[in-house]
Amino acid sequence: MPAPIRLRELIRTIRTARTQAEEREMIQKECAAIRSSFREEDNTYRCRNVAKLLYMHMLGYPAHFGQLECLKLIASQKFTDKRIGYLGAMLLLDERQDVHLLMTNCIKNDLNHSTQYVQGLALCTLGCMGSSEMCRDLAGEVEKLLKTSNSYLRKKAALCAVHVIRKVPELMEMFLPATKNLLNEKNHGVLHTSVVLLTEMCERSPDMLAHFRKNEKLVPQLVRILKNLIMSGYSPEHDVSGISDPFLQVRILRLLRILGRNDDDSSEAMNDILAQVATNTETSKNVGNAILYETVLTIMDIKSESGLRVLAINILGRFLLNNDKNIRYVALTSLLKTVQTDHNAVQRHRSTIVDCLKDLDVSIKRRAMELSFALVNGNNIRGMMKELLYFLDSCEPEFKADCASGIFLAAEKYAPSKRWHIDTIMRVLTTAGSYVRDDAVPNLIQLITNSVEMHAYTVQRLYKATLGDYSQQPLVQVAAWCIGEYGDLLVSGQCEEEEPIQVTEDEVLDILESVLISNMSTSVTRGYALTAIMKLSTRFTCTVNRIKKVVSIYGSSIDVELQQRAVEYNALFKKYDHMRSALLERMPVMEKVTTNGPTEIVQTNGETEPAPLETKPPPSGPQPTSQANDLLDLLGGNDITPVIPTAPTSKPASAGGELLDLLGDINLTGAPAAAPAPASVPQISQPPFLLDGLSSQPLFNDIATGIPSITAYSKNGLKIEFTFERSNTNPSVTVITIQASNSTELDMTDFVFQAAVPKTFQLQLLSPSSSIVPAFNTGTITQVIKVLNPQKQQLRMRIKLTYNHKGSAMQDLAEVNNFPPQSWQ
């Protein structure tokens, strides 16, 4: 049989192919020749054929039939054969194929070979594709090579040990004695791989981390190595753009970050060297920037001094001036993470951050926008809003929704005056009205309603803003509502904040009728306009007949919602005219209900972060029951089910926000359904049919003993069980006791249970026994729910659970429909 062509000739031939089909034909022809050679057990050219097969594999063609030939080459005594055999094994084999287990004995023999290069090949292969079985069998040989004096083998053995630890973590302690002298090596390759091994051990085992901190005194050793790298002169072997071995410096900084996290002593020991690295590293080249970035991350993650943290933030500020977009993006992302802990230091770079809003790169622009909102406070609100409103005016459409939401939140929190607040929101609605969230309209209406002294000014501004322009539908909706509510102030010209305009009743109605017939008006906007016209029938005196005519016209509208409104308003004019003025009187001031607890959840680009709330004392005197008892109906419709809050004996963990309507179309100003009201809330009058008499008689009757309990929720180790009892004084009241247990190894903290029921029920949620669910089922949280079901309907409930677990905020929703019939019949 003629000798097969060489690899170089095969590559040259394949590259001459003009089409994919021609290349496939060449490959198939060569694969057939290689298969024939394998069948004839041709030992002379096996190495050459496997090398060609690996090249074809790299081109994407199947080469699995060469797997056993790789094993034969590994078993050969020639180094050239072993080299190709091991390379083929790393490319063609993995632990999912049983064939790889046949290599175990060959690798073991080669690990004990007299030639270091053969040992190196075996270490590379084991570290690349060794399975857990192979790692268990060969870990002893790897540990021996880790102790050898040959630096070539030690660096490869260290990397192989990393793979062994990843596959079989329980073998970690085997390598502990060998790590003691690794950092004393002068060879940078050994130092680098040793730091990688130590990092892997510290990340995977808290016990190892504590051992290296206390017993091995690892931090001083790493500090010494890092200091030598900084202070050493030019070394051509390790120099990269004028910096000595930046790869080793980065690895050491990462290991220092792990060792210093949540440890005062270790952090204190590395403060000085981190300051030296931050001040002595050259920033003109990307190599220096990489080291500085790792230094910043380490400073921010350990318990470092305040001056050092300011230095780190100043480095990020310099990054913002870099021409490289990647470095600017990294700086903005890092500043966004640190702004909560070092707010004042980041504020110094506010002007540079705002300049990034003008960047052409959309990723940088988005990060700059998020960071700008994080920097807003009561002192800079006017200046920052000016910049952000300019950005909103000129930014791409994909930014407008997030930017508008951020401006609304910041204005609500830090507004210096109500007029400024109203002007700012109106500017947003004028600029990006079609991009704002659905709750922007009711929130602005509530703000206007509560600002009694601004009614005339606001309605005049909105009237002028909507003249002839109905493109921004949310703005038109707010304008229609305000004109209907305060149209008499608009006509009378009572505005004191700016020069009043002269408007007649007919001109006001012309605007609203134009909204009704405009092609740009949505069904919702038309509903606002028709209701506003109806309200004006009690505010205006000369145009009531015109209003009757407009309302009667829409009694036959094809829009069912509009038709229903018109028919009902017509009935008001005809049958109930004596009630019209009372029904359409001006809305009272709306009390805004704040969330219970010190924090609320602020949504920023899909990330959830806690933001402090300014808690305000409750108003004196009793609050209206209809507002104090708001519970969002989560199961259908926009009706509200009352909830009677009870004052807790101890302040529970914050729910982090209201229990939001899951179907999306309910006014979100109601109080949370589950978080108990603070003890300072004034006592409100309670409906007598739910609680009256429960304290003077036995609470439960004997029929409750036959009601089976149910498991309402079981996920991620958290289990919620419901047990049932019936009230002795009112059979329509079902008392549900929830028991929350935790089967995981860590406690669940800040636990909050929230619930909502359909509008035909009434629900009262009492205070929980605790806010911590103990681990390993060693304890439970109990909480009592009282449900009034006067119509004896089947009980349904939607629950929301929030808690912190393993350092992460968890949240889940569930629906409970499997209540036993005895609990509600």
Automatic annotation (TrEMBL):
Classification via InterPro entries: Adaptor_Complx_Large_Subunit, AP1_complex_gsu, ARM-like, ARM-type_fold, Clathrin/coatomer_adapt-like_N, Clathrin_a/b/g-adaptin_app_Ig, Clathrin_app_Ig-like_sf, GAE_dom
> What is this protein identified as?
AP-1 complex subunit gamma
Residue ranges of domain GAE in the record: 705-820
Q: Which GO terms describe its biological process?
A: intracellular protein transport; vesicle-mediated transport
Q: Which family does it belong to?
A: Belongs to the adaptor complexes large subunit family.
Q: State the taxonomy lineage.
A: Eukaryota, Metazoa, Chordata, Craniata, Vertebrata
**UniProt membrane topology term:** Peripheral membrane protein
Organism (species): Balaenoptera musculus (Blue whale)
Which Pfam families does this entry report, sorted A to Z? Answer: Adaptin_N (PF01602), Alpha_adaptinC2 (PF02883)
Q: What GO cellular component entries does it have?
A: AP-1 adaptor complex; clathrin-coated pit; perinuclear region of cytoplasm; trans-Golgi network
